[in-house]
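Dear colleague,

Following up on yesterday's call, I've attached the two folding results inline so they're easy to grep. Please treat them as preliminary; we haven't cross-checked anything against experimental data yet. The first protein's sequence and structure tokens come first.
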Amino acid sequence: MTSCRSSGVLTASSVVLSGRCKLISVHAQATSSAPTTVKVFDNTAASGKELVRIIVAPAPESPAAIEFDMHGVIATNGLYLDISTGAGTGAAVSVEFN
């Protein structure tokens, strides 16, 4: 059985990992009344190659939680989590990787 590492639950933009890895999955849940965009970049900053984009909104517009299975996509530079909304951060996100 193969296991993976986790960023833990993050509520603000952050470098998840510096260096090469496999992105396994991203889990996101809305935590505010504003729609929130969650992006993961193959980088240590909010630029470069965008690997995934999730838009979460408060229910009933969006599911309570969303999981993206990334099937082990390779990130060569690292993983940067960007959480943004017009009203500050509005999502709790975990990033799983190897």
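Below is the second protein, in the same order (sequence, then structure):
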Amino acid sequence: MKKIILLSGIAILSLLTLGLSMQNADVSGDWEFSMQTGRGGLTQTIHFDQEGESLTVTMSGRGGGKFTGEGTIKGNDIEWTIVRNSPKGEFTFRYTGVVEGDSMSGTVQMRNRGSLEWTAKRK
């Protein structure tokens, strides 16, 4: 009987540890976002509002504009989409990456224009 109780306790602790390790990273707040573009370096502020796995994203743009989008965080994997309108039409940017503490990095897919690498650090 003692062995069963001991094994049950070990199983419960293992499940709790596994559950804690699968928690979503907390990305709430402001981040400094950087990437190299064909026009040179780009640094901007990005703000995440997080509720569970759901993200609302606000990115500053060149000239003071702001762009909003939505995304998800699952464990340390993050993704969000921003749609920008321009005189040339609508452009969708899909960002994917991995969060590591107070930094994250990944790629942005820009419609038919390929992808670029980006990094971000918590402010």
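For the second protein, one point worth flagging: The chain has a mean pLDDT of 85.

Best wishes,
A.L.
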